[in-house]
Amino acid sequence: MSDSSLFAGANSLISTWRDALSLTPVDLRPILIACTLTSANYPKLLVPLVQQVLAEIEAGTFTVPAVPSTSPSVTSSTSTTSNTANQVLDNQVRFIRRLRESIYKGSVLCGGPYGINALGAVSFALDPELSEAVNSHGPVRGPNSALAPEEYQKRGRDLFQTIYQHHTDPILTKIGNSSQDLVQSILRDTYGKVLADTALTTISETELCLVATLVPLNVPPQLKSHVYGSRNVGVPMEQVQQLVSVADTITSWVQSQVKSSI
């Protein structure tokens, strides 16, 4: 399938995947689809996905939950027209920040190159004004929020315990027998610095992003762990299974596109 024919049917395809999910908040649905597309290394479909959501926000048919702000709101004018336009921009900024954070978190599992490709596609979908507004917030993990290494280690261990519960020590022991450095990196860096940060996504949302990311990777032990980890942080198992099913559908679709292009 050519790119032109792909994009012609992209909105319908993306809407079908979104409609198959019942997770809330609703902005999480396209975000999870984006995580799966990132891991499946099919970033070109992120452009129409982002544009679809931005258009819905502009039309007032898509809501984005509030997130903590680290810089002043872009709203400043007192006119009704300007306030409406700035409210749209604020909502678009919140969505893109949550989307980028979720892709970044997923990239610790699927790999930096996939994350770079996906985030580049998201950036390509933004107009200059929106891109500037998003980037004005700076990094989520800036110097003002940095912790000491031992604090990251503890935060990572606490999150690992929350997700894996009574399996925590056996899992860490098994990994440690292969590499002590890997254990330290997983706890301090992957979990402590990246996954445990809740500035833009909650722990339950993060777990769902990881599930969506793992499906295309064909790693059943890790997928199973995070499916149950999602349940352990409060996500109903029915919704987790629903996500796995949709992510599997997306993965199969991507594989068919790759095969047909050979």
Structure description:
- This protein is an all-alpha fold and 262 residues long.
- The protein has 13 helices and no strands.
- Helix 3 runs parallel beside helix 11, helix 4 (46-59) packs antiparallel against helix 5 (80-110) and helix 8 (149-164) packs across helix 10.
- The longest helix has 31 residues, at 80-110.
- Mean pLDDT is 91; it is low at 69-81.
Layout of strands and helices, then pairs:
Layout: H1 3-8, H2 10-19, H3 28-39, H4 46-59, H5 80-110, H6 112-124, H7 128-135, H8 149-164, H9 168-178, H10 180-195, H11 203-214, H12 220-232, H13 237-261
Helix pairs in contact: 3-4, 3-5, 3-6, 3-11, 3-13, 4-5, 5-6, 5-7, 5-11, 8-10, 9-10, 11-12, 11-13
Give the DSSP E fraction (strand runs of 2 or more residues).
under 5%
| Cα Rg | 19 Å
- Any low-confidence stretches, pLDDT <50, length ≥5? 69-81
What gross morphology would you assign?
globular
Instruction: Give, in order, the helices and strands.
Output: HHHHHHHHHHHHH
Please identify the structural class as seen in this structure.
mainly alpha
pLDDT averaged over residues: 91
Put simply, the count of helices is 13
Q: What kind of assembly state do the chains in view correspond to?
A: single chain
How many individual β-strands? Answer: 0
Summarize the main sheet: none
Q: Terminal Cα separation, in Å?
A: 10 Å
* Share in helix: over 70%
